[in-house]
Amino acid sequence: MSFSFNGIIEFVAVAETQGFSAAARKLNVNVSHISRKVAALEKELGVSLLARSTRTVRLTDAGQAYFSRCQELVYGLQEANETVFDKQVELSGTLKVSAAGEFAEQHIAPVLVEFAQLHPKLTIEMDFNSQMVNFIDDAFDFSIRYGPMKDSSLIARKLTNRSLVAAASEDYLVENGFPTHPNQLIEHNCLMTNNDTWFFRDNSKTIKVKLDARWRSNSVRSVILACERGLGVAYLPRSSFGNAIKNRTVVPVLEPYWNREIATWIVYANRNFLPAKARLAIHFLLDKFKDWQE
Known about the structure:
Belongs to the LysR transcriptional regulatory family. The protein is an alpha/beta fold. The protein has eight helices and 14 strands. The protein has helices at residues 8-17, 20-27, 31-45, 61-84, 101-118, 170-176, 220-228, 276-288; strands spanning 50-52, 57-59, 93-99, 122-128, 142-146, 155-162, 164-168, 190-192, 197-202, 205-210, 213-216, 233-237, 251-253, 262-268.
């Protein structure tokens, strides 16, 4: 059995705005058009999607299940269209992005510079701050975040996976010994950013180690410098070490226990009202990082 997409956009608009009039305003059509399209869709499916009264419109159980799937389809179609035409769309105004860390500076910023070059009338503001942002009060379009997502109210799109690497200088290891298990780090000097609990993996098992900091800084570069100078062990994304591992100014340790799949996310508050400049920038980033390897 095959169905057309006729009426799905109108149905999703009604479900999102909770009304036929509001949906009509959103799509810039008249109310009768919305009503006809939704009625035709219900007839085609053979099920009522909306329960209508004189004052309210609500989803039926079938409508709720259908909406949860169709909403993604409509967004996907919208995003696919914008991806095709992204170089032809003239964007203006200000795109405000929150990011943090060496990865954002070395890899995210250059991609957004390239995006800005495609849209000369667009201004981009990047705020390199490790604190969680308030998308409404701080007016950020989206943020780049690393690690587990704790706020389920936000929308998160995975940008890429990255691997954590534990390392120390050879001089430090000669003097203090090579740790062979993450629990032994309690006996070592540890260099930290903003997290005093390190997570390692042993096959499918998570190893959680809470540590005291010998050096703590929200600057990754200063942590790497302290690591190279023999101050202790650092546990950071591979890309944060730059050429330090290649040049052997630091030596990897505990490699069998590294956490190798920590996601970097593009995070934003509400997809319904995400402006075109943000949607296009997000898709530009996703496209650039689809085959990225650390």
